[in-house]
Write a structure and sequence with these properties.
homodimer; Arc Repressor Mutant, subunit A; DNA-binding; elongated; about 60% helix; mainly alpha
Chain lengths: ~150, ~150
DNA sequence: TACAGATTGCTATGATCAATAGCATTTGCT
DNA sequence: AGCAAATGCTATTGATCATAGCAATCTGTA
């Protein structure tokens, strides 16, 4: 059976992404958190007090879809909202949130390590640079701050 | 603003994938076909007469979800079903399907080329091998992801 | 041949995720 | 004061994905 698709980078990228997201969600299931929740926790931890809109922009999530995400994570007691404006609200990790984050980071770091181990050692240093270049789009005019 | 996520291969993979799928769908919009339809056309062309279940397996799509996909593409007159069994049916490209496939291939090849151009020339040969390793090993557990 | 088990295509259903339009309130700027 | 933009939100839609179950059919084996 011919597989003409597995030579296409775009197709490979899609299949790899969906299968790895599923795997990561399985690994996170024990903490009762999915990969989106996890990314939000990590982002808030690195930028305490950032706005809900800021988080949406950085995560590539529409403001509309951010509402449910924040509400769910807040409902688990992992984050706290504080009004800083009449319209904006700052997001902060709760004590529980910080504890869960520690477990999330352990899972994610193990996951990322296992990802890299699937790539031959000589190609391993190129994984992140290649993915950054492939993503690239939509971040070119993303303004001045960090790309680190 | 710190971005602690963009150093994580898994996160980069997800973002790159979703942004590139969106771009490919835009490029295909003129042909009135999406990336899933396109992959089905390519697969049938390379394996004329393959079974609907075979196609589902190769594309990583559940049999249940294949029904709507095949029905939609058949509804556009791009493929034909032929019973080979009392239960199986062979999928074949129609004349229109072959014509559309030619346009699809042109779009996809242009897209894949533009993908690779985003990667520095010295890293370019490593793109497909890396993606294959990232995907391949992820499938060791025989596919499905199930939450608890 | 007869039967158990697997396969195929299908329906129905639910969960997740993303995208759009529109809204009230608030802020910033002129 | 007045106006444009931003913020959080509701509501809705569509696409994707996974599960359970079903009738019909095929396959392998006793």
């Amino acid at each position: 059976m011919q597989d003409p698709l597995s030579s296409l980078p775009g197709y490979l990228l899609r299949r790899a992404s969906s299968s790895l997201i599923a795997e990561l969600n399985q690994r996170l299931a024990g903490i009762d958190v999915n990969h989106t929740d996890a990314s939000l926790l990590i982002l808030i931890d690195a930028n305490p007090g950032l706005t809900q809109s800021d988080a949406a922009r950085m995560l590539g999530i529409q403001r509309a879809n951010m509402v449910g995400l924040v509400a769910r994570v807040e409902g688990r007691g992992l984050l706290v909202r504080e009004r800083v404006d009449g319209r904006s609200q700052a997001l902060l990790l709760s004590t529980d949130g910080k504890a869960v984050l520690a477990r999330v980071l352990a899972v994610i770091h193990a996951f990322e390590a296992s990802l890299l181990e699937r790539v031959p050692a000589d190609l391993r240093p190129h994984v992140v640079p290649i993915l950054r270049h492939l993503w690239g789009e939509g971040r070119e005019n993303a303004g001045g701050s960090s790309f680190a």
